[in-house]
Amino acid sequence: MEIPVWRHNLGGPDLQVGREMDFFAFLEPTGPVVAVEGPSLVGLEDDADVRVIGTNGGTGRGPGPVHTLTVVESGPLRLVIPGSYTPATIECLGKLWDLGTRAGPGACHGVIRGIIWHKEVLETTEVRKGVYSSEGVGYYEDAPVSSTGTIGAAAFGAFELIVELLNPSQPR
């Protein structure tokens, strides 16, 4: 299965179509997180959202501004969602963000099948007379690229990586 995994402007020569990668997935919810019954499922929705039905893997403390995270496991996809949930099976919907590409326990594994660069949409406001501040409010659709080396380091935005999930037991 191929899913979109978003990554803030942290590219690098390791991100190329056809390369394998390990990543830690964070689901930014765009819908409610609910208790359900039934088998595991990973499906694509509109606007690059992913719908996941999976097993509750437990709750723990998170780094930074998200203090509590719950682990959800569905086939080869393991992700964290903000908040604490107790149901045995959880359904959630949202954008998957890569918290970092490194190997380790809890990492997902896949092959990059596509890379799409999305330039950030900025909104500039005047904080006080003569002082302006810009804040990201979304992303433009942009062209596919084969390597992150084609994007300038000073550009603001996000990569949408199309990743074919592989089971951890599959050979690398």
The rounded Rg comes to 17 Å
The best one-word shape is globular
Sheet with the most strands?
A: 6 strands, antiparallel
Number of helices: 0
| Binned strand content | over 45%
Q: SSE order in H/E notation?
A: EEEEEEEEEEEEE
Classification by helices and strands? mainly beta
As a percent range, the share of helical residues equals under 10%
Low-confidence stretches: none
What is the average of the pLDDT values? 85
| Euclidean distance between termini CA atoms | 17 Å
Question: Can you describe what's shown?
Answer:
- The strands form 2 sheets. Strands 1, 2, 10, 11, 12 and 13 form a 6-stranded antiparallel beta sheet that branches. A 5-stranded mixed β-barrel has the order 3-8-7-6-9.
- It has no helices and 13 strands.
- Helices cover 0% and strands 58% of the residues.
- The model has no long low-confidence stretch (mean pLDDT 85).
- By secondary structure, the chain is mostly beta strands.
